[in-house]
Amino acid sequence: MAAMKLILVLCFLFGLFSVSSAIRQYEVRFKAMTSSPYPHDGRPEVYIDGAWGTICASDWDMNDAEVVCRELNKGYANSITVSGTLPAVTGDVGNECLHRVKCYGHESLLSECEVLDKTTRSGTNDKGIVCYPPSSDAGLRLNYGPDKYSGWVEVKLSSGSWSKLYGSF
Questions:
Q1: If DSSP codes are grouped into helix, strand and coil, which group holds residue 119?
Q2: Rounded to two decimals, what is the model's pTM?
Q3: Spatial separation of the C-alpha atoms in residues 81 and 127, rounded to whole Å
Q4: What are phi and psi of 47, to 5 degrees?
Q5: For FRET with 127, which of 27, 71, 77, 138 sits at 20 to 30 Å CA-CA?
Q6: What residue stretches are annotated with the SRCR domain (predicted)?
Q7: Number of neighbouring beta carbons within 10 Å of residue 127
Q8: Mean pLDDT, the chain cut into blocks of 10 residues (169 residues total)
Q9: Residue ranges of the alpha helices (H) in the chain?
Q10: Are residues 109 and 151 in the same domain?
């Protein structure tokens, strides 16, 4: 029996056998809120078993939101929201939702997170996110410096024009 265990261990070490788990790939999209002052505020939607669904995880937290904001190129997670403030579910969104999601915050994709369960959505516990915009949209820049690492700090105003940031630091 000990010889059999030794042979199995050696086979795994030399790659003759391998253990793999099927990782489920989720496609994610973003349904933006039209009435929000934030440009990246809304509900993430996930392609589940041939139809679009939502995330209804009771354990949804900032780590999960961070990963979804990153995957969607929406910047960094600012907060999480619940269904009362989200856009109405319309069109091609079905009844499935991801119920148990566990991200640690370092993942690049929702598919890299642990998704333990899916369920039929009730519509009352859909999860949403508010993301800080990516740095290219953030409205900050350095200008009038000798190189790209120095200069005046400027802020983009709501009118679209730029203004120097003044103050004592």
A1: strand
A2: 0.62
A3: 6
A4: -80, 110
A5: 138
A6: 28-132
A7: 24
A8: 47 40 73 77 86 82 92 86 58 75 92 81 73 69 80 77 72
A9: 2-13, 62-71
A10: no
